[in-house]
Amino acid sequence: MRRQDIHKVLIIGSGPIVIGQACEFDYSGTQACKALRECGYEIVLVNSNPATIMTDPVMADATYIEPLNVKRIAQIIEKERPDALLPNLGGQTGLNLSTELAKTGVLDKYHVQVIGVNLDAIERGEDREVFKETMASLGIETPRSETTHSLEEAEQIAAKLGYPVVVRPAYTMGGEGGGLVYNVEELRVIAARGLEASLTNQVLIEESVAGWEELEVEVVRDEKNQLISVCFIENIDPMGVHTGDSFCAAPMLTISDEVKNRLQDYAWRIVERIGVIGGTNVQFAHNPKDGRIVIIEINPRTSRSSALASKATGFPIALVSAKLASGMTLDEMSYWRDGTLEKYTPSGDYIVLKFARWAFEKFRASEDKLGTQMKAVGEVMSIGKTYKETFQKAIRALEKGRAGLGFAKDFNKKSLDELLALLQTPSSERQFILYEALRKGATDEQLWNLTHIKRYFLQQMRELVEEEERLLQYCGTLPPDDLLVQAKKDGFSDKYLAKLLGVKEKSIRVRREELGCVETWHPVPVSGVDNACYY
Known about the structure:
This protein has 19 helices and 18 strands. The protein has a 7-stranded antiparallel beta sheet with strand order 14-13-10-11-12-15-16, with helices on both faces. The protein is about 40% helix and about 20% strand. The chain folds into 4 domains: about 110 residues, 3-Layer(aba) Sandwich (Rossmann fold); about 60 residues, ATP-grasp fold, A domain (Dna Ligase, domain 1); about 140 residues, 2-Layer Sandwich (D-amino Acid Aminotransferase, Chain A, domain 1); about 120 residues, Carbamoyl Phosphate Synthetase, Chain A, domain 4 (Orthogonal Bundle).
């Protein structure tokens, strides 16, 4: 079917498949609906979640709030007779359903073309054995691993690779069913869970690269094979913590140009081979000791990282991906900086941080322990001129009643040994525990050995601790003007400073305003559209 023969497009929304995912895919779905309607297509939308913005009647020409399964979508296809199906903006659910619809013959029966992603690309990205073979053909290293469909064979593979190992089920989202295991007892539990969660009853048993750097590249490709890197993301938490739970920075703050260039080269080769039209997230592990880079995962769809990259850069990946799926190309879309989007390069004089939001207090049966299976219920994103400012803005954005890094729970009452013991296991409180450990004299070496968080980020936090100690010298009064202004530039809130100094918050605000230290607004230009920005 030619592009000009497509008039009606079916979009599969994701629904709240994993807690916290719905908002990200809601964003992607609304962007896709908007883009395709602008291109003149009639939109049919199916989503199981009536609470999303995507299901607002103005978003599509026909909206179905139905269970997301093959039987129900086949009925919708029979009734609506769409010309095309766009699956890669509905998360893992959209990819899995499109594969099942093809295998059961529904798409062929009603002459529905899949756009935005090739069905075999889904297999190359999601089937663990095919993924491994595809990477090998490109000369890109993967962690040593083997796939299996049985628990007995999983035990044999793990014994051969040596513990710890990672269990990765095929065709799941958010690391569902997987995990890092240290012995055969844990393997039996998690591998059995992974086999059950996998669409194809397949798991990958993989050597552990826990402690390595986790790095991501967000790539967009069009049907002319024009490729651009939208965003480079550095996970501040190392491998071993799921990227959905990981503290992340964009752009990369500690990664050399040589490593970034290698990551881009690998990512472009991968995306070209799998043939995705639109956005693809590619995740790597990097061992800074020997320079080894291995590919961990590709998401041939709009993912959580895609939403972060879109907001961080002003590049609306979902909207652009939908337009590319409809047949447009990057050289037909405007770029605020230089002509059209095929010339896009990441830019900006600001730092973006993503901090996950958990709700262990609401899910009392769950353990506050982070690993390869995602537990976040959402996330916040902050933008600032420096790492310190952005970090402290993110803490306040979590809406947990915390105005800064100190005074969290009872951590300030614990000894250094107690704090170091808490840091042995990644948790939702890790950054706050690190802060108190630094206050009580922990060295960068001690903290790195426990967390594998890079020394740059530990040093940034140490400088905030040292700044706080200087401020405490002026308890009961306002600090010198230069120290107050610097504290504001480093992201200390009026409320936190008032609590630290034992003065009224209003007095802090009045004095810094007298000094001309007030909020300002800076534009982030939006790509792919004319004359738009957010602030």
